[in-house]
Amino acid sequence: MLSLEEGALLVKTARKTIETYLSSGKILPRPKVPNKLLEPGGVFVTLTKNGELRGCIGHPLPTMPLIDALIDAAISAATRDPRFPPVTLKEMREIEVEVSVLSKPELLKVNHPKEYPRLIEIGRDGLIVEGMGGAGLLLPQVAVEYGWDAEEFLSNTCLKAGLMPDCWLERGVRISRFSAQIFSERGPGGVVERRLLPP
To answer: Which fold would CATH assign to domain 4-103+180-195?
Structure first.
């Protein structure tokens, strides 16, 4: 588990990374951070503007040091999310930055796909769907924000993967779950707090 101070450092680094890249085109050098942030970790950076999504990209798997994955994800969320035009430096005054640090995904094993929903806890689990030529991930907070139950969460993760919403019932599809520690700004550039999801 990361402390609030470590989470706040990640959020502030994400903001500084984006502002540096947008103003100069340069990638922020890795800052001096606690050893825990140098361990491999999965991370997503989410940008919101007036409560609406403005960009969200990350690294689901712990393939590089957490701080390096964060810097790459921050730039990608601001400039490479295909759903949105690139963020402008001026916009950053209106954008809130949120960082989700992911646990290592756990592949769910069932005798029949209909058993998946009972293994998923809304508010705790994020989902990854892989198979049939597609892959999609939704963070734990998404299901809470939309008020989905486990089946709706599975269906929407299938849609995120570019697949049919009932693809999770196919035997060749792999479903993984993960948890996330979420740290977010209270207002653009504001105090960082640990975001707790309702159960």
So the answer is: Glycoprotein, Type 4 Pilin (3.30.700)
